[in-house]
């Protein structure tokens, strides 16, 4: 199997720093199913290419799988694993380039955080569904995709194309993002993993793809294929992805086959219910200016901009990549001057005071506080409620008690959550913050309630005491 990564970033040999593999060396990495080799066919200031070559030992692979493997047959020994990119290459890539996938580079962290021109080539890639599937899964991620079908037999063109394509991806992305996408999507296109899939596969998928997969238009297809069409795992994964992004176009009960249409009456995803609840609260507050603190890739901002009563909408996030996704989602580059005047996007950390946070009728912290380390939560409280001090603050966060109703969920709902509160803990936090900073608080629930466990999402509305007094005086 062969995969090459090229760049024309100047100097192009910086690719060696990003991959943590020296261009002047040939390095071998033993795998349980063969040997992975990294080398550089070209390395100049203008262009640099790193090649990952995987040599598979079919006998070792077959013995490693054992009789519990789903294809315990001669097919384990006579197959395309020796030359066609597959889940084996994805596993080797994750192992060999593990530091690069994490996005860290001590030699030049600024470069690791930047999008650079990349060209990725895979000469033989199994692609069930043909070239169209390759375009569907890679295109929305910012790649220019070339998926050239490989004929079954050049001597007999009438036999048509094989299930393999010659894939070339070109675009400007962070190298870490590109590697994480390949790690997930290679087995998705092949749709035949070489190892047994257990419940921890959901966590692996979210770690590698949670950020970009949540907003992908074909996330159901990707999730189902990655998890081997195992319905229970797929439902858990889609439910957790719905926590990260809107899933209005998808059902948490995926169809058995991709061609089967979803039923017209579908369960409303929890994230959509949260958005509706927040919009309803903002309407009740008669807010005219709103800031979304921790806006992520801009799902709520997109809805806020559709509200004609809002004269100013701002979004802030600590992640520059999330803000880039938000700008793309909102089509900032195509906005009219009048539309652009209503919107402000900026980078900032909620644990440090920033004058740009201040001056809004309402601030929204939707599924944000649980991502903050508990020792730093007090700093966020001081910055938002004490310094910025908006007229109202709307907070949503998971209800830990409800997790017992999610089939297959162990631990917290997302790998990046630092904590999750039950209803009593959330109530205590709300009362303490309100008392400390001069707010009054009202708590509600979002989502279908359970008699024992409550609602899946908790919502709190903080309003300043002085605003309440002024409202009563006006009345």
UniProtKB/TrEMBL annotation:
EC number: 2.1.1.386
Domain (Hen1 N-terminal) ranges: 1-242
Reaction it catalyzes: small RNA 3'-end nucleotide + S-adenosyl-L-methionine = small RNA 3'-end 2'-O-methylnucleotide + S-adenosyl-L-homocysteine + H(+)
Keywords on record: Magnesium, Metal-binding, Methyltransferase, RNA-binding, RNA-mediated gene silencing, S-adenosyl-L-methionine, Transferase
SUPFAM superfamilies, alphabetized: S-adenosyl-L-methionine-dependent methyltransferases
Cofactor dependence: Mg(2+)
Transmembrane segments: none
Residues annotated as domain Methyltransferase type: 291-393
InterPro entries: 3'-RNA_MeTfrase_Hen1_bac, Hen1, Hen1_N, Hen1_N_sf, Methyltransf_12, SAM-dependent_MTases_sf
Highest taxon of the lineage: Bacteria
Presence of keyword Transport: no
PANTHER family for this protein: HEN1, SMALL RNA 2'-O-METHYLTRANSFERASE
Family: Belongs to the methyltransferase superfamily. HEN1 family.
Protein's recorded name: Small RNA 2'-O-methyltransferase
Source organism of the structure: Nocardioides humi
